[in-house]
Amino acid sequence: MPELPEVEAVVRALDRTVGGKRIARVRVLRPQTIQCISVARFCRLLRGRVIGRVRRRAKFILMDLSGGWTVVVHLRMTGGFVYTESPQPLPPTARVLFLLDDGTRLAYTDIRNLGLIRLIPTEQLDQSEEWRRLGVEPLSRAFTVRRLEEMLRGSRRAIKAVLLDQTKVVGLGNIYAVEALHRAKVSPMRRAESVARSQARLVALYEGIRETLREAIAAQSAEPLHLEFIGAKRTKHRSTASYSFRVYGRQGEPCPVCGAPIRRVKQHGRSTYYCARCQT
DNA sequence: AGTAGGACCTGGTGGC
DNA sequence: TGCCACCAGGTCCTAC
Question: Does residue A238 approach strand C to less than 7 Å at its CB?
């Protein structure tokens, strides 16, 4: 589920629901979810702190706390949050509970247990090696056609692989990389350097990335804010309720642009969907 | 510098 | 119904 638009939706929902509340107590149901710090220390350091702003960097969720600490969450594939009044039952996938002093509680849930939570001093965030390596935010002003050109130039990798590389540009995952390429009419298999050489393709891809992400974010925020079910994944088909994909998951269906059947191939072990007629 | 492949985990789906 | 293979939105590691 979670690529940039989904993480952004979770961040906004969290900011509205738990921003400003005080953490009374923390219960860790699955110790391995907490990284880089002991569970005891994690619980002790969180107790009594007030949750300030909730923000996002790349696909990380950052909850700033009073006293200069930040909770860092990465949802990976199946992480999410559930917010409930105290007596209500918890989902079986709850891994960490944040009990708030107004009697509500926030549960971090994760089916596959790939997600992670850390607690680090806010000021140390920017200094970590991992943070430094993160690429540009695609919706920020720092991301320009020029910047895109620089990151593609000289690379013989497939363009899709570069879009998924979080040290280049952050936030795109398998779905939105595929969607952006379709919008830009660029083949996922085309070498990055050859995209860089064509100004038309470059601009189309730049716009494709931004429009795809903007639309997905807009679609998420058009949905009613689920207070009780923030983020968690539960879908029969893989489309988000109000956002349907142009090509992702649509093998064999007609391309929405030209009608040719959408193909599915494996690239680096992951499914790529594209239209062989209009993406070149 | 690349890529392929596997690992981490769990659950859902479709075929037989 | 049971069993099995395969699939999944992320990232990291090792071996070529």
Answer: yes
| Distance measured from the CA of protein residue A60 to the C1' of nucleotide B4, in angstroms | 28
The domain in which residue A88 lies consists of 4-132
User: Does the annotation mark A55 as catalytic?
Assistant: no
CA A34 – CA A216 distance, rounded (Å): 30
pLDDT, tens digit, 9 for 90 and up, residues A73-121: 999 999 999 999 877 889 999 999 999 999 999 999 999 999 999 999 9
A78 and A173 inside one domain? no
Q: Which amino acid is at A10?
A: V
Cβ-contact A59, A3 below 8 angstroms: yes
**d(C-alpha A205, C-alpha A194), whole Å:** 12
Rounded Cα distance between A234 and A231, Å, is: 9
CB A42 within 8 A of CB A34: yes
Q: For residue A105, give the CATH number of its domain.
A: 3.20.190.10
Q: Does residue A207 surpass a pLDDT of 50?
A: yes
For chain A, how many structural domains are there in total? Answer: 2
What pTM did the predictor assign?
0.94
Among the options A2, A5, A138, A188, which is catalytic? Answer: A2
Structure-block tokens of residue A25:
């107590």
Beta strand extents in A51-158 (DSSP E only): 51-57, 60-65, 69-74, 79-85, 94-100, 104-110, 116-121
Three-class SS of A170-234: CCCCHHHHHHHHHHHCCCCCCEHHHHHHCHHHHHHHHHHHHHHHHHHHHHHHHCCCCCCCEECCC
Strand, coil or helix: A162: helix
pLDDT of residue A205: 98
